[in-house]
Write a structure and sequence with these properties.
By secondary structure, the protein is of the alpha/beta class. It is built from eleven helices and 21 strands. It folds into two domains: about 180 residues, FAD/NAD(P)-binding domain, CATH 3.50.50; about 140 residues, FAD/NAD(P)-binding domain, CATH 3.50.50. About 30% of the residues lie in helices and about 25% in strands. It has a five-stranded parallel sheet with strand order 5-2-1-9-19. Strands 13-12-11-17 form a four-stranded parallel sheet, with helices on one face. β20 and β21 form a beta hairpin. α1 packs parallel to α9. It starts with a strand and ends in a 5-residue tail after the last helix. GO terms for molecular function: oxidoreductase activity. InterPro entries: FAD/NAD-bd_sf, FAD/NAD-binding_dom, SQRD.
């Protein structure tokens, strides 16, 4: 029997497992293949939906389902913390001492925010990249009646356009709440423009300028001065705030960091087309865990899982498995509470945002609601 072991039960791991369950159904039914997912969480969280919680547009329970409910029944699900992968013996080990031999292993362990990298942030500021953080920010916004709002970004982070979305949604929210004239908004970004990609940065620049949002570039956060309520950059700039929202830098999983394969931040060196771990032919990496020069976003996991599932099934059936991933990404971008744009790009073709509109906003909301179908690997 061939064994495929997937470490991680998030979006990337679930999509891949479900595609394999569907596309290799004859082999699984015949006892020739077993697909195993090792998950350290029992609930699947639709992370892009966290953006909507501060605005009371989503509730946490709408974004969560049991992992066992979203996985195909033919997939073996193991709850536990994967702690080691032995590439020589081809075994994944969990913290409970369970050993899972594999013919093919897939690392889909995602990424997570590191707010502790910015001293004072958790005491005086807010994040919306966790359920608890988004709810805490929701409570702060409920009582906010105007003042200085600072939105600051650390790199790298997943859902790359989310800070832009939050800023434009907040500006629209303040306007609709009738407190925009009493609200000063500053957006801080560590690069020379408000987004890494030029076309998206230009769109954001236009939108921010038209809405009176001030932009601070080359702003690398050092700490939050909790007494003075100021955000401090490494070059000494200090920006006062009444409400601080920070997107902290992210790192790869603890599993990745301790694997012996990742860089210091936990990103796994991954072939940009074949998705195999560097120097390995039977270990693959998808989703946020890779070091690929593309967005850490759900659509990336979607497109990567398509390619990898097809290649694994082909190899299991004796073929070469030679389909290539070309860096395909698709992202919606909310530009307010009722308008949005989108970008589609790959390694060779840069993004080109379309004109924001209400139909695109509704398309994004529909896509959010279709996530649970999307996870099944049938779209």
């Amino acid at each position: 029997m061939k064994e495929v072991v997937i470490v991680g039960g998030g979006t990337a791991g679930t999509m891949l497992a479900n595609r394999l369950a569907r596309d290799a159904a004859p082999e699984i039914a015949g006892g020739e293949l077993r697909v195993t997912v090792i998950s350290n969480k029992e609930e699947h969280l639709y992370q892009p939906g966290l953006l909507y919680i501060p605005f009371r547009l989503k509730k946490p329970e709408e974004l969560m389902r049991k992992v066992k409910e979203v996985l195909h029944p033919s997939v073996r699900l193991i709850f536990g913390e994967a702690v080691h992968i032995d590439a020589e013996r081809k075994v994944v080990t969990t913290d409970g001492g369970q050993r899972f031999p594999y013919d093919y292993a897939v690392i889909a362990t995602g990424s997570h925010p590191e707010p502790d990298q910015i001293p004072g942030l958790l005491e005086a500021g807010h994040i919306f990249y966790t359920v608890d953080g988004a709810l805490k920010l929701q409570q702060a916004m409920d009582t906010f009646q105007g003042g200085k709002v600072v939105i600051a970004v650390g790199l790298p982070h997943k859902c790359p356009v989310a800070p832009l979305e939050f800023t434009m949604m907040f500006e629209d929210w303040a306007r609709k709440k009738g407190i925009r004239d009493k609200t000063d908004i500053t957006y801080c970004y560590p690069l020379a423009r408000p987004y890494g990609t030029e076309s998206v940065a230009n769109m954001a620049q236009r939108e921010f300028e038209s809405r009176g949002v001030h932009i601070e570039t080359f702003f690398l956060m050092e700490e939050v001065d909790t007494k003075k309520k100021e955000l401090v950059s490494i070059d000494g700039r200090r920006i006062p705030f009444d409400l601080l929202v920070v997107i902290p830098p992210h790192k790869g999983s603890t599993f990745s960091q301790k694997s012996g394969f990742s860089d210091e931040e936990g990103w796994m060196p991954t072939d940009r087309n074949r998705l195999n771990l560097a120097d390995q032919t039977d270990i693959f990496v998808i989703g946020d865990a890779t070091n690929l020069p593309i967005s850490k976003a759900g659509s990336v996991a979607h497109f990567e899982s398509e390619i990898l599932a097809a290649n694994l099934v082909d190899r299991i059936r004796g073929g070469p498995g030679e389909r290539l991933y070309h860096g395909k990404v698709f992202c919606f971008i909310e530009t307010g509470l009722d308008k949005a744009t989108y970008i589609a790009f790959d390694y060779a073709n840069p993004p080109n945002p379309v004109t924001p509109s209400k139909p695109v906003h509704w398309a994004k909301l529909s896509y959010n609601n279709m996530h649970w179908v999307n996870l099944q690997g049938i779209m």
